[in-house]
Amino acid sequence: MKNLLNKEFRLALHPTNIIFISFALMLLIPNFPYLVAFFYTGLGLFFTCITGRENNDTEYSVSLPVGRKDVVKGRIAFAVILELATLVVSVPFAIIRDFIIKGIPSNQAGSMPGLAFFGLAFLLYGVFNAVFFTCYYKNPLKVGKSFVLASLAIFIVVIVDIVLSHVPVCSEVFCDTGNSRIAAKLSVFFAGIAVYIVLTAIAVVRSAKNFSKLDL
Amino acid sequence: MKDVLRVSGLSKSYPSFKLRDVSFEIAEGSITGFIGRNGAGKSTTLKCIMNTVRKDGGEVFFFGKPFDGNEREIKNRTGFITGGVDYYPGKKLKTITDVTKRFYDAWSDEDYRRYTSSFDLDENKTPRQLSQGMRVKYSLALALSHNADLLILDEPTSGLDPVSREDLLETFLRLSDEGKTVLFSTHVTSDLEKCASNIIYIKDGGIFAEDDMRDFEKKFALIETTWQSLPDGVSEKAIGIRRTKNGFSILFYANEVPFMSENIKTPTLEDIMVHVEKEGL
Question: Which terminus of chain B, N or C, has less C-beta within 10 A?
């Protein structure tokens, strides 16, 4: 796995993957559907896969002394690292927004960057991984189709976020970054992590199954 | 001599093409040419062997072990080269090498330096900056530096100028002397005349012949005539008859030539291939 990750970062990585991590800055924009900031991680992975197609990455990877399942695991582990890096980088901006820039009013376009919000961010990444990679490994040449489907799935999560922020009971959980209803917030946060783990594991299993049937 | 590769009953179906019951064996230290016209199934066979295309049926054994379950070990001992490095054309060779070598248990930096030096490879260049011949040599340098015992090459001489082609074929001979086994596909029969000891001839998705090259050629007889018309009984016995500038070129099985002639000669592989492919068997 270490060697495959080395290959991903030194050969496959598209520069936008690093640039898009800095899009965590979007958490400082007033009145914004903040989950959109995490959409760009998916866009960067799409760029990596599309340049991989032009660079014959799949053919190169399967020529190495590793199994096809390992190739899939390497790519999804690479995605997980980028996703977690984006989340980690976004935390300071959420704190800055919450504690330092007091003048920014509450969000009217979705949840506020708090515990429940990060639970939804995990959910968004899990949905992306499950849809994008499962579809991508059916046919890596049709990476555009995989990205369109994954983007549609992501935007459903964003719409759900916007709706929840306007439902009175839910808005107390999703639009308040203080300590009120902390149990509900923690529940959403940990549920998001759990769903992320399950969906990413499903992505690995189904992608490996699809990739194993593929003629290159 | 033991077999390093054994293929048995390999099959693969596409809507417009079928690989049918392909079976052959490759002996250790041999240079085997895998020939057939374009679209005969050479690349499909090699890709099925290396698992880049999924076979529908059959078995493949490397070094006496099935591919399934031994993929990592087999890939460590095998170099599969498809026409020269064509991945990451914008990355420097030294970066590709540094990433690639970590996957191999028996990688030798010393061997790598020796091969890059003997092949005149500049590690600061990218694959895009290399000629087709140099790309093949870079692929070979990678395969040989991880101490591959078996080299499988798909059309390695395709697109090479005559000097580079000669150079590469000489490299195969040198590798054979070192005990390496080479299996390479080509549709250029003169490549085989220069270095191959055995041939596997694939035709319409099935194995037409698997033999020592000289023995295979001796099974046939070629007659170049200046006849303007064919005598009775010739066309029934002939494998193939082609009109030439001065008369006819006729291919027979060596033991079925229906008349004596001082023009009977052993055909070259190209003569056999042209007759067999054009007139059919």
Answer: N
